[in-house]
Structures are given as structure tokens and as C-alpha cells.
Amino acid sequence: MELIENHPFDELRQGDSASLVRTLSRRDIELFAAVSGDVNPTHVDEEFAASDLFHQVIGHGMWGGALISTVLGTQLPGPGTVYVNQSLQFHRPVGVGDTVAVSVKVVGKIAQTRHVILDCLATNQAGELVITGTAEVIAPVEKISRPRMAVPEVAVLEKGRLYRRLLEGAQRLPAVSTAVVHPVDALSLAGAVAAAREKLIVPVFIGPEARIRAAAKQAGLDLSPYEIISTEHSAEAARQAVALARAGGVQALMKGALHTDEMMRAVIDGAGGLRTARRISHVFAVDVPGYARPLLITDAAINVRPTLEHKRDIVQNAIDLGRAIGISQPKVALLSAVETVTSTIPSTLDAAALCKMADRGQISGGIVDGPLAFDNAISETAARAKGIVSPLAGRADILVVPDIEAGNMLVKQLEYLAGAEISGIVLGARVPIMLTSRADGVSARLGSCAIAALLHGQRAAANS
Q: Where are the strands (E) in 145-196, listed by range?
């Protein structure tokens, strides 16, 4: 076991020195920013840094200072050292990929107080000065030799990556006229108004006007720029929103503070609803910080126990959404408990049939494979360990669950255990439907609006 040892005061001599070498990575900058809270855009914003003094992202100056502290605390004098004073001069920046050599050298001792003065120096790979200065410490009295503690593994998880990309894409398109159904609470109104301010939607609020205005007053929101269509209750609001969409008055729907089944009852109504030849299904757009790509999960909200024919449409709807948000050929994993086709697990039979449908052109625009267990769909390591050969093993863009129970549990596990951010959209109807949860925050509602705008843009382009 590697030991970490110190040099007590009595052992130290003039000229004793110690050093270390580190190469600055982008991860180092992110970790330092996370720990210190220093998110100066010079260090973390590439666009800003490109126009700043040094024309590139640079490391925090105190990252180099922390390396000096590392030498003092772990090498010279080492464990038991107490900082008293530090004076540093910063001569030039350290960029990503620069290698810094840090050294300290004893230049003075004060016996009465056990204070030690050390010169500090940091140079880059070109031998240029980065930092110079002095440190004053109290050196330990006793010899210390202990096992070196392993540094904890730290993962840098970037939340909101998918949503930022969706917003950037959607903001390049015209805002989508959207009926916001029964928005009688502050959260529904705040999400819609925020989306309007981001130029994603043009909201039309449909519901009891007095309740809508009361909620807006409570939330401090100005509704004067927006149209309000007054109804007596939520069921009428849903019917009027659907009728408006059928007539071409709006291009999308957004659920407010009403139950999903009440909203969808109006959507699927045989006489005046928004059905098409395609089965209506729901897709969650999931931004998982630890997963390298956007993840779409379907269907975890509408189809309880879909048949094979229903699943064909569910898969096609999800592929169309994947293409709309910028995935040129979405990789679709048909999930089950195992990777082999077996008659005792019906979802494996459906997966095999869906793969053949994709081969015969009944499903198009994506790569479809299954049955696959969840781990093999999202982890290349797991797939290799199990000998799974698949064009999408570990790289799935779309996860198709066997039924609503499996999907609901999977999505909520990702949200509450993996820190994922979730947005939802209903597909297969005449217009996109933002089926947000009453518990969803503004960011989730913005994500849903961005998806709706991208879907509408895709359809408009296809019809032009």
C-alpha cells in the first residue's frame, strides 16, 4: 500500500524541495467550478471566452494555487502542515491541455514558532512562468506515515443539455399557436408564459376566465398580450381546444390543470376529436445527465397494454419525433426482460415481429432491434459482457417499453434516482399535444413546447 509521509520541522533543511506535474483538462475546470461556485464565463463559457482577453477557455487561477497546496499538504512538509500565509503572482493563464509543473522549496525556518517559508513556482510545458510566490506554514513536529487515501471518483453531470439543444433548435422556427387547456393554476400559466417569452408558442388560454386571471394575479403574470377563451369548466375547455385545433385555429395543444383522461377524452372523440390513421401514443423526452445522448421513452402514459399493431404505430411515432429533434436515424431498442425470443414472454414475440416489420418497410426511418434488456440497450459494456451483437447496443435513442406499467416505473426511476429531466408529448393526433404533468416545473414545460415547435416545423417542411 502506498504511504504518505511528512517531513517534521527538525528534518527540514534550506533548499529541500518537492514538486508535481498536472495537465489541465476540461473536467478539471468543471470540477473546480462546481466545488468553488466560480462560474466566471472566462472559465466555463466557450462562446464568451472566444471573445475575451485570452480567446479561449482558461483554468481558474486558483487551480494552480490548489496544486501548490497539494504539494505542501502531501509532500513538503506534508501531513500535519498548517497554512499560515500565501502570496502568489499570476503571470500567464493555463488553458485546457497545458501541463503545469509546480514546485516548492524551503528558504527559511523560524524555530520559535516552527514556521517554514517556502518559495513556490509553477511553469508550463514551454518553461514559461505561470505562478510565483511564497508560502508560510507551520510544520508538523512528529513523523507521520499513513496509507494514502484513494481520491473519490467524481462524475461531472451536465443537467439540461437536451433541453438547451431543443430550445436552440426551436427558437429558429416560427412560434406555434397553442391552446393551453384549463390553466387555472400558477404553474400551468407560468410555463406557458415562459414559453411565449422564449418565442416557442403563442398561447391561447382556454378555461374559466375568472380562475385563470386569479391564478395569474397570484403568480404575478401579465396576461394582457394573450387571448383568453372563457369556458365554464375543464371538460368544456378541452372540447373547445380540440375544436379550435380541428378548425386550424391553433397548431398544438398544451394540458393545464386538468386530468389527462379528461383532456384525452376530447382528443380521441370519434366525432369531433383529433384522431388520424395513426395510433395516438406518448413519448417522454428524457435528459439523463449520465447518458451521452437524448433518450426517448414510449409509451409510458397512454397505451396501457398495446397490441402488436399499436406498437408498430408507437415505434413509428417515436422515430418521427427523433428525426424532428435532429436524430437522423434513431436507434430503437424494443425492451423486454431478456434478449432471446421466447413464447413465455409476449414482449419478446412482439419485438421479433416489429423487427421484421422494420425489415419489410412497415416501420421506416430508424434502426429497430430487440428484444433487448434495458442494460444492453444503454450500456455497451453490458452488451459486450453478455455477447450481445446489435447495431444499437449501448447506443439506443428510443426505448420502447412493453406496457405502461414498465414505462411509468422506468421514467420515474430515471427522474428521481438519476436526476433526469422529463418532458412529454403526445403524437399521432392532428396536432402535437403537450401532456405535461401537474407536478412538472417550467423547464419541463419549455422542453415540451420546444418539441412541439420542432414537430410542427417538420410537418410544415414536409407539406411545403
A: 145-147, 176-181
- Supply 462's cell numbers: 414536409
Write down how long the chain is. 464
Mapped onto helix, strand or coil, the DSSP state of residue 118 is strand
Sign for the CA dihedral angle at 346, 352, 354, 356 comes to negative
| Per-residue model confidence (pLDDT) at position 438 | 65
pLDDT of residue 1: 63
Helix (H, G, I), strand (E, B) or coil at 297: strand
Q: Collapsing DSSP states into helix, strand and coil, what is residue 24?
A: coil
CB 319 within 8 A of CB 365: yes
Q: Which residue is associated with the grid cell 462562446?
A: 47
Cell of 14: 534550506
Positive or negative torsion for Cα 134, 135, 140, 144: negative
Residue pair 333/398 in contact (Cβ under 8 Å)? The answer is yes
Catalogue all structural domains in the chain, each as residue range(s) with its CATH number: 3-147 (3.10.129.10), 161-463 (3.40.718.10)
Is residue 196 within 8 A of residue 226, CB to CB? The reply is yes
3-state DSSP assignment of residue 448 = helix
Residue ranges for the chain with pLDDT beneath 70:
1, 438-440
Q: 23: part of which helix (H) or strand (E)? A: strand 17-23
Q: Could you write out the three-class secondary structure of 76-110? A: CCCCCCEEEEEEEEECCCCECCCEEEEEEEEEEEE
DSSP E strand stretches across 182-330: 201-207, 227-230, 252-255, 281-287, 295-298
- Name residue, grid cell 449520465: 290
How, if at all, do strands 227-230 and 3-5 pair? unpaired
Structure-block grid coordinates of residue 277: 390513421
Single out the residue of 62, 68, 73 nearest to residue 148, CA to CA: 73
3-state secondary structure of 302: coil
Q: Where are the alpha helices (DSSP H) in 130-285?
A: 161-170, 186-197, 209-219, 234-246, 260-267
At which residue does the C-alpha cell 410544415 appear?
460
How many CA atoms, within 13 angstroms, populate the side-chain half-sphere of residue 264?
A: 16
The predicted-structure confidence for 390-444, as pLDDT tens digits, reads as follows: 888 889 999 999 999 999 999 999 988 988 888 889 999 999 999 877 666 777 8
Whether the predicted model's global pTM rises above the 0.90 cut? no
Which helix (H) or strand (E) segment holds residue 371: the answer is strand 367-372
DSSP 60: -
Cα–Cα distance measured from residue 174 to residue 453, given in angstroms and rounded to the nearest whole number: 8
Compute the distance between CA of residue 99 and CA of residue 91 in angstroms, rounded to an integer. Answer: 15
